[in-house]
Specification:
- By secondary structure, this protein is an alpha/beta fold.
- The chain has helices spanning 41-49, 63-78, 110-118, 136-150, 233-254, 272-284, 299-302, 309-318; strands spanning 2-11, 15-18, 53-56, 87-91, 126-130, 155-163, 180-190, 195-203, 212-216, 227-231, 262-267, 332-339, 343-350.
- The protein has eight helices and 13 strands.
- The chain has a five-stranded mixed β-sheet with strand order 1-7-6-4-5, with helices on both faces. A four-stranded mixed β-sheet has the order 8-13-12-11, with helices on both faces. A two-stranded antiparallel ribbon has the order 2-3.
- Strand 4, helix 3 and strand 5 form a beta-alpha-beta unit.
Length: 351
Amino acid sequence: MNTKIIGSGSYLPDTIINNTHFENRVFLDETGEPIKYPESIIGKFKDITGISERRYAAENQVASDLAFIAAERAVANAGVDQETLDYIIVAHNYGDVRYGKTQSDTVPSLAARVKKKLGIKNPGCIAYDLLFGCPGWNEGMIQANAFIKSGMAKRCMIIGTETLSRVVDPYDRDSMIYADGAGAVIVEGTASEAGLLSYQSASYTFDESDYLYFGNSFNSQHEPNTCYIKMKGRKIYEFALNKVPLAMQACMEKANLDITAIKKVLIHQANEKMDEAIISRFYGLYHMQPPKDIMPMSIHKFGNSSVATIPTLYDLIRQGKMNGHSFQKNDIILFASVGAGMNINAFTYKL
């Protein structure tokens, strides 16, 4: 029994925020001092991250709203009765944060809210949230696979949703990275050879757990009782390059796949330079250069929406909305992610 994706959907908010939005922003360093040569920040930012624009949720939307839209589209795409879902797993990090507010709302769970919005009455449809940093959606896929293989479920929905624009420090230049969005898939058990083939997952918490954290603004006078998403960029970069390629390799070995079998690598859209370095090091383990167009990138237009980046990217390609990229039957896809925890994971999938 394999776990196969039978439908997908995504939602990218209408509000487009270009890099010019930040041109007059005063950015501070960790000591609270203004960053030197502020006029060069935007240019360097794009060169490193690849981001030209990102999407922000509308003022009347929260993360569960974005998740519901993606979920509704996934149900329609799969052509199934939503009452037949055994699990709804929603990966996120900060819950519902309303516009202009800083408090996270996670009771009831976002999954429960999505289930209600979908109008599902079946109490046997179990709805729960998953907090696993940016690799949360991948981990949801791995958990759904376990449910299906164990006989606990026949059909599951896995959603990644986030409104990171609501939890950023306006004085931190890293605030330009983050974005909002949601992606969802529906999976079910299948007797065919297609589906999830192997996975690898790990949590590095002894020395690495605070690489991504919730901390105060770099401006000590700016809402001192409020915390924002913070990261130790250099440490994350080094961690990702050392750990993620090895997890990807282990995943390939578990599936007994040759590296040349991979048609696409869908990696968390965190930072273009970092993702390129991960791919380069991964293929370097096989003494190869990465094939052209092996790694689709959506970060340029949509930014880093954490758990939403991979399912959104998958749906865009599946729906034929990523120029130069497509899926074909029997293609082998490698999914990989890294994020807060520090957590990493990967799984191989046959279309």
